[in-house]
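re the bet — no i am not wrong, look at it urself. input seq straight from the record:
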Amino acid sequence: MAHNISALIAKAPVDMDVAQELDLPVFVQNSFAIVALFPEHCDHWAEKLGLPHEGRSDMLLDCPVVHAFAKRLGLENYALVETDYFGGIGEQWAAVYRRGEVRMKPTKGGINAALEVLGVKRQPGLDEFDTIGLGHHRSFDTLFEKYWH
């Protein structure tokens, strides 16, 4: 089964008025907010906000507009996570930031470590990834159809 998402994750709450203004879907589970991201949506907002299209790391969406989203949403401590795999083959990445500054550098396979840094407490029989419900989100593509090129 495929899993291909990019998201900001932080302790809830997030500023839902800003999320709506920026057209960012937000899911909350176990006191953590998952803010869905999509490359074309980020490109749209980078242009609209006059932000450069430059990467900060090997992570696709580790870019100025995503960190601007985090700031506007009121996220002080947050993780940026990305998955891209099918049938268990592929990769996942994660980094943790505090006010846009690196707390945990972008790490291949580091999602559970990043979530632990944020304070996610594993539920019995689950890892941090599944504790906050990331396994329920296979793709955010259809949430951003109006940004498809």
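see?? The CA atoms of residues 67 and 148 lie 22 Å apart. told u. also The longest helix spans residues 39-49. so pay up
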